[in-house]
Amino acid sequence: MTPSVTLLTERDQVVEQWRQALAKHDIEAKVVAPSDLANSVDGQLAVIVDVDGAQLDADDLLSTIGFVRASGALPIAHVDRDRDTLEDIITELCHGLVTSGDRDVAQVAAAIVRRADQQRHLRFEFVTGSPCGDEVLAILGDGASSLHRRPLDASDDGSDIASITIDPSAIKATLLLESGAVCQLTIESMHAAAEMTNGQEDIAIDGEKLGARLRELRLAAGLTQAELARRTGIHRPNIARVEAGRHTPSLETLARIANAIGVSTTHVLVSRGS
Length: 274
Prior knowledge:
By secondary structure, this protein is α/β, with parallel strands linked by helices. The protein has 3 domains: about 5-115, Rossmann fold (3-Layer(aba) Sandwich); about 120-195, NE0471 N-terminal domain-like (2-Layer Sandwich); about 200-270, lambda repressor-like DNA-binding domains (434 Repressor (Amino-terminal Domain), Orthogonal Bundle). It is about 40% helix and about 20% strand. The protein is built from 11 helices and 13 strands. The protein has helices at about 10-25, 50-55, 60-70, 90-95, 100-115, 185-195, 205-220, 225-230, 235-245, 250-260, 265-270, and strands spanning about 5-10, 30, 45-50, 75-80, 100, 125-130, 135-140, 145-150, 160-165, 170-175, 180-185, 200, 270. The strands form 4 sheets. A 5-stranded parallel β-sheet has the order 2-1-3-4-5, with helices on both faces. Helix 1 crosses helix 5 (about 100-115). The relative contact order is 0.09.
């Protein structure tokens, strides 16, 4: 069956723009009027909301995109104006998929099938040795990443890594060591490790501690709130709210901030001791 997305618009130029971009990836576009939202979600990979064409006010836009996400489809916001004029919560709901030009449309169209896969966080995308230290760096399909201290298991003798192979199922990575020993990193062990602090103080998702930690890391990286806002696409007042402990970001937003600072999400969530 050919995958399809719903295009919630009444503007011909938007329809043509998206149909051309989607056709390159063998995705069909089902055009639906904004007033027929209730019948536009079932079985769709994504729903593209023409924000400006639909002339939705802030509450209508939030409820429309929230409904799409709650229904299990991937919401995408198409805007003609500057994307920064949208509320940060809209970008959150759309997993960052907001378009404001032909280039954005082409990039988002290419990402739809991958981003609509709700199981991508359960598969390895890339596993390698850390560029700093002797840990193993694992990256999942949703972009989540973590560092894993060695030994990984009882078979890991600490010798250098000769090669790493990801199983076809992408739930297991096998490491061949220079000594000839073989050890493994699995999705299960990765998630288990993420819940452990390795003897360090876990700051959990305590808004005040998390905000202080982010501010500490931002300053250590020599970044202003304005620069961090530019790098992440998150409005500076929202970053200020996070650092002040008045708002606890989602893990996806936290990952965007950590990446912009130049650290892993795990590094943010774990206090390095006093």
